[in-house]
TrEMBL record:
Listed cofactors: [4Fe-4S] cluster
Protein name: Radical SAM protein
TM region(s), chain numbering: none
Pfam families: Radical_SAM
Species whose genome carries this gene: Sedimenticola thiotaurini
């Protein structure tokens, strides 16, 4: 699961239509990426198939379930009555791409029939989900408009990935991103600042830069490590060495080094708009590198540019 790159939602579509009849009643908690905030959400699964990442609290209270197609189809019908002009759909919960390809295609076909203006279907995806699909399967999904995958890279350090129980290595992540690219799927990848703590900060950022410079992606977002009290104990146990959280200055220095070091195989749209971040940034890399670094430097010299701590959340 791509970890904390989603907000807990009473999202815009649900809020706008809460007084209409036949709205969807979601199985909470429900998360989605920031960029899916104004789009329709359909729960194809409940929970997360992997659900072992030590830094993530999103679906710990849920048992993974592939929701029956008849229930999903009924909710698509309800949503179409309330919002027939919907153009983009996000398939929740944690890693819908783990579903069999034929199952996903049936959902995509029903969405296309219900929403004539549909242009895009997106979902979270583990690297292992991508690698399990054949090239032909990924191409078929793209043809049915499932053409954006949200993938949690988290770190390019093999040691840190093991310590956080990511279930992936830099090599497998790189292979998954390359496979998605070959299938002409867009990938929105996330990196978690502060994930190595103070002692492994250099290893974390250097490894992440190396990975990003060798793997084609379309979008890149940074998040900031945020541990819920219940998850912090498990995170520290699995990390198996002293771990010290970094302050905002150290996090910004990590972000500065990351932005300064990225020379991706193709231009990347960069964002740090998730609510966990101390500093919101937006630009394209490498084109806007100097401007983004200047913004970080300005924030390093004046914490008035930072998001107040009480506004930071998952």
């Amino acid at each position: 699961m791509p970890a904390i790159n989603g907000y807990l939602v009473a999202h815009a579509w649900f809020t706008r239509r809460r007084n209409k009849r036949n709205v969807i009643h979601y199985d909470m908690p429900l998360y989605r990426p920031p960029s899916e905030g104004n789009n329709l959400i359909i729960q194809a699964t409940l929970g997360c198939h992997f659900n072992q990442c030590s830094f993530c609290s999103m679906y710990k209270q849920k048992q993974f379930e592939a929701r029956p197609l008849n229930i999903v189809f009924d909710e698509i019908t309800q949503a179409a009555r309330a919002w027939p002009e919907a153009q983009r759909v996000f398939l929740a919960d944690g890693d819908a791409l783990t579903l069999p390809t034929e199952h996903l295609i049936k959902i995509a076909e029903r969405l296309a029939a219900a929403f004539p203006k549909l242009t895009r279907i997106a979902c979270y995806a583990n690297p292992s989900d991508i690698l399990r699909k054949t090239a032909a399967e990924l191409a078929r999904l793209r043809e049915h408009k499932l053409n954006l995958l949200y993938v949690g890279i988290e770190s390019g350090s093999s040691t840190i990935l093991k310590k956080i129980t990511k279930g992936a290595s830099p090599r497998s992540i790189r292979a998954a991103l390359e496979k998605a690219h070959q299938a002409e799927l867009k990938v929105s990848a996330t990196v978690i600042l502060g994930l190595g703590g103070k002692t492994r900060s250099k290893e974390h950022i250097n490894g992440t830069i190396e990975l990003l410079n060798s793997a084609p992606i379309t979008y890149l977002s940074t998040l900031q490590l945020f541990l819920q009290p219940n998850e912090e104990i498990e995170f520290l146990r699995k990390f198996a060495e002293p771990f010290e959280m970094q302050d905002d200055t150290a996090i910004l220095q990590e972000q500065r080094k990351l932005v300064g070091g990225i020379n991706p195989p193709k231009p990347v749209i960069f964002r740090s708009n998730h609510a966990s971040n101390a500093l919101a940034l937006a630009g394209n890399l490498p084109k806007d590198r100097e401007r983004l670094i200047a913004q970080i430097d300005q924030a390093l010299g004046n914490d008035n540019h930072l998001r107040p701590r009480y506004l930071r959340r998952l």
